[in-house]
Request: fold
Amino acid sequence: MRVSRRGFLGKVASGAAAGAAVGVPFAEPAAARPPGAAPPVSLTGMRTDRAWQSFLADQDLHWKRVPRTWYEGPFLGNGLLGSIVYQEPGLNALRFTVHHSEVQDHRPDFGNEWGVARLPVGNLLLHPVGEITAVDLRLDLWNAEISGTVTTDAGRLALRALVHNDRTMLLVTVDASAGEKGFRWEFRPSPAVSPRIVREPPPAGFAPNPAPVTRESGGIGLVVQPLVAGGQTATAYRESTQAGQRVYHLAVAHSYPGTDAEGRALSTVRKASALPVSSLLRTHRDWWHRFYRKSFLSVPDPMLQSFYWIQLYKLACGAREHAPVMATTGPWLEPTPWPSVWWNLNVQLEYWPVHGSNHLELDAIPRTLAENTDILIGALEPEYRHDSAGLRRSTDAQCDDAGPVGIPGVGAPDPEIGDLPWTLHNVWLTYRHTMDRGVLEDVLYPLLRRSTNYYLHFLHEQADGRLHLPKTFSPEYGSAPDCNYDLALLRWSCATLLETVRLLGVQDTLEPKWREVLERLVDPPVDANGFMIGAGVPFAKSHRHYSHLLAVYPLYLVNWEQPENRDLIERSLDHWISFEGALRGYSFTGAASICTQMGRGDEALTYLRELVARFVQPNTMYYEAGPVVETPLSGAQTLHDMLCQSWGDLIRIFPGVPAEWRDVTLHDFRTQGAFLVSAVRRGGATRWVRVRSLAGEPCRVRHTLTGRLTVSGVGGPAPRWRDLGDGVVELELGRDQEAVIHPAGSRPDFRIAPVRANGPAEPWGLPALPDAGTVTQVDLVPHFDNDAITTEMYYEDGDFDGAGRTYPMAQLPQTGRTVDDGITFSFTNGSEGSANNVVAAGQEIAVPPGGYTRLHVLGAGDTGNVTVPAVAHYADGTTATVTVGLTNWLASGPAYEETTAVATGQIHTPAGPLDTKAAIFHQVTALDPARRLTALTLTAPAGTARAHVFALSLEQE
Reply:
């Protein structure tokens, strides 16, 4: 069966476009104002390009140092083509990664990790003439481009780079000084093999794809990558000169099963290179400028405000309604064990922010499910396909993968059957935020009916007279009967189906069954600690997912506005987040969003800052063994939840704002019911709330205003309204009608404007190293030769001590630095399969020359305590031995008067985790400040134990 699309695919984008752009004047209606009614108001502010450019410039990322990895560098994208800029490892060159979200293998019999995995395309290298000595780069959000200079010992390169919005093409312009006129470009294709190879070899019988073929066609360079399964990927590129600048155009196209990618890539470059750069810039910028104007949000925390706007930029780089649904890495692709699409949390979190931010033009989920319904049906065993559908845990962007969805009550494969209904919850949110009947009728209803039928096949009555589920799988935790993940989704599914048939005005023969499920379904299993995983399976270990809490968030079936459930919610949240071992970034965004439901804005802010402090990288990217894009995006959704919620047919203004955010501006925030909401908070109080109806739906608003209220029209007469008490106002708004709720007898300032920052914040990116007189962090990355860190998802990656034992990634610093005893260290805890420390074996490490008083070492011994007879090299040609004592990583405390800089509660072995404590120590050794230090040699210690150095810092007076 295929879902009838009936023109649906054009509806979502047009529905999103219906939202008013920020700053568009409100039309005066023809109707006259009734006598005695409040005068109409007009909202002002954020109308000009200058205002927007100035505001977004304060959110830009800056680089004063060369980024060395994907989670440090500036990034570009247009939903299809993605690029991140950082130094080519081991070379004096800048790498522009080149990846495309449509590029994948097409052999589903080998599974999503290999057979339909996304495939890398290649890297574009900028080779300067001289050695790179400095960079000054900026990611300009307003124009969606990277600009700045690269300085070498031969001159300077002024560059601009962007991924063109309309043409799916990387465009780079370079203006070179005299000494750098000879710089050159080089495109290096990557082998067309799954990035999963970082963890394991390909499966048996999996034939490698052929080598790419490089040639020239009409003055355009061309790389064609044929695939074993058929189809091809093509990369075309051309360099030209315009107005003294060297201009580089590069396009990528993918086709399957046809071979037209080559012609499309060549055509893109040929047409674009015939146009002036100014023309390409204009059309590119036009789209981005319209994009930003669709909504506005400003909070007084400049770090989080910048983080939010970078996430909106990132979302638009990775997602478009017409593009493939985002893979776990977004459009960018690096070595990773996650080279496809994950549906048991990742996709849902990736797309949540599109609703409130009023960017439905980025939502690919409804279209993806509608186009691939046959695959969803075929994902089940044959006996269930007549009336059911399911979604495998991880697939390609067309929902395809090897093997069936599991069968409840059967152990293999894991019966993880809730992923389709949870994804359909996103579709329901899209419907509720647009009120587009096509979304409801063409996608949600037929697919939710089928996914619910799959549950009904296994639902059975037990002796208690209640309906129960056999064992199903709670994502990543394990299986349990009456699994809370599935009970919540089944209850939501039946309630939503009943609401859907009511809205569509149809009768369904299954309505009695859906009502029976709601009446007789077993209650969610709970114990003294709150929600369990399922019957007989308590929540008893650290677990990053909040899948067992789905009824609380995001489904709101159990919510804080039900007084009888408050204790259960509080116990469940506290118990879940108390287990540290496997918590990850999205654990803290989920906890924060639950706190906003509870009205605990201060706690939500604490969790959000925990996310940033522990997990978010310099460019706001995030990793779990490899790039994982959903977590920072879910941080943006947490900000939405703090400022406005609209579940349960009630719009809640500022439900989880922390006390320190005394000023907040929110404009054209899209809510359920298809309303655009604006609100301003000043001096700790809500000043006014404006609501515009896009669909004429019933409207109730919890406004958070105090005192006597009135309602005024916007550009016209005031609507009828009622005060329902408890801070709730009901407005009678027709389609495209709007009103403002504000204190009676006053005319507030109806301006939309950024709020004043409550303190300074360093911009995202890489700041310059501290000036002399403080602490200088030494770059050890080029010398790393050991992998001492593994994730809880794969224990066989590293080997710290020769026995395969390692530190757990989740319990080590992940944001690029750590501080101990006032000393800051650069710390690398990066992708799976990457080295992250130096085993002392005679390496000579250059340092920024200077007169230093102390050497600070972050390290540990592996099989015992060690003493490193390091050698300090001075500019005058002299040397001195510097003794560094490092304690065994498993020791109960420092043996050489160090401090314990990092401590973990467990270690990893190839067979799994052990509850054994481990540490990394901070050792301090004196240096001669009268001499200018230039290098350090890390001499191997005597004996069999090795010294592992994770970071070095040098202190000056």
Summary: The radius of gyration is 29 Å. Confidence is low (pLDDT under 50) at residues 1-36.
